[in-house]
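Because showing beats explaining, we let one protein speak, sequence and backbone structure tokens together, and leave readers to judge.
___
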Amino acid sequence: MAGKTTDVEILLVEDDDADLELTLHALKQHRLANRIHVARDGEEALRFFENGGRVERLVLLDLKLPKVSGLQVLERLRADERYRTLPIVVLTSSREEPDIERCYALGVNSYIVKPVEFEKFSEAVGKVGLYWLLINEAPHRAQE
């Protein structure tokens, strides 16, 4: 990727094809599908930022990712001053208490376990998008 990556509202970090499609469909269904960038693993997510990518509103982050885990992505982003206030929501299948505790210790804004049923999944993604993209007032971030 040469040069700066265009600004996106959402960075969706998801390696599972079915969950990726469901999430994109749910965002579109709720009319929240503006400017989405998809990273298929943690390494690709970090490379997005290293190559000048900018996320204006939200990172949706799975935990169980190949190459670099979601926990490692969260840790690296929160260690960087430019991304400390960037809203990051973990959207994962893990209900493991150590995962939940670690995410909050690292500064995640919200931790959501993916519902198994499509309608509940779609509703959860819609509510997350509605809150973080339309209701929440985020501070201006200089991600240069």
Q: What stands out?
A: Residues 1-5 have pLDDT under 50 and may be disordered. The first helix runs from residue 17 to 29. The CA atoms of residues 31 and 67 lie 32 Å apart.
